[in-house]
Design a protein that fits this description.
This protein is an alpha/beta fold. It has 7 helices and 13 strands. The radius of gyration is 20 Å and the shape is elongated. InterPro entries: RraA/RraA-like (IPR005493), RraA/RraA-like_sf (IPR036704).
């Protein structure tokens, strides 16, 4: 018989971005980041803000602390809370399991007390009024009042795949009303380097559209060179 793993494994040498790298993502829209990563980077759009009426902040950024739980499990998330540092975003993977909460109001309150910046999960959450009262921004796959278990096994500080994208501890997470984007650790500086140019282009195009601009020069060029035709 294969030996069973420990109930909980916590990585001791967790890599973290520098504070200046983290600060570079403050108030950056998720769309800008996807533009800087060939149009990609977002978790599946089943992951949405738990609250959209303004009762909770709709922007969060920080380094991922990944809690890889099994379905209907919370033990790894408990381990992540135990080692979390202020500004971390706890990313709780439950392998897409539905009909069970991955965290509730008290857990959100404890994360807020620990200084966690936000909570992201591919599972559901519960105790909505208490979540709002706790004040911790959160992104999830909906709500369910069912309770999770804490039997393990679980892993903290490694990586996990959730909502169609792999997230490693130390990656940058940026979340807003549009969704959640993952900036891989090794691409942080490259993405930061592109943000100024992307912001300038966005501001310029916004001004043109507000001024009445509605042209499609790319389509005009395709019609001109024959790669598109009027039928």
């Amino acid at each position: 018989m294969i030996e069973e793993p420990p109930k909980l494994q916590i990585k001791s040498d967790i890599r973290r971005p520098k504070q200046a790298q983290i600060d570079a993502f403050r108030n950056i829209p998720t769309g800008f980041l996807c533009d800087a990563m060939e149009g990609q980077g977002a978790l599946g759009m089943a992951i949405q803000p738990v609250c959209t009426d303004g009762s909770l902040p709709l922007h969060a950024h920080g380094p991922a602390l990944v809690a890889d739980n099994g379905p209907a499990e919370i033990l790894a998330t408990m381990g992540a809370l135990h080692i979390a540092q202020p500004g971390d975003i706890i990313v709780a993977a439950v392998h897409g399991h539905k009909n069970c909460s991955a965290a509730g109001d008290r857990f959100c309150g404890m994360m807020k007390n620990k200084g966690v910046a936000a909570f992201v999960t591919d599972g559901q959450m519960r105790d909505y009024p208490g979540i709002v009262a706790a004040g911790l921004p959160a992104w999830c796959a909906g709500l369910s009042p069912n309770s999770p278990y804490s039997n393990g096994p679980g892993k903290v500080g490694f990586g996990a795949t959730l909502a169609g994208r792999h997230v490693e501890t130390g990656d940058i997470i940026v979340a807003d009303h549009d969704g959640v984007v993952v900036v891989p650790f090794d691409r942080i500086d490259a993405v930061i380097a592109q943000l100024t140019a992307i912001q300038e282009l966005e501001v310029s195009l916004d001004a043109k559209v507000q001024g009445g601009y509605c042209e499609m020069p790319a389509v005009e060029a395709m019609l001109a060179d024959g790669s598109a035709k009027m039928m």
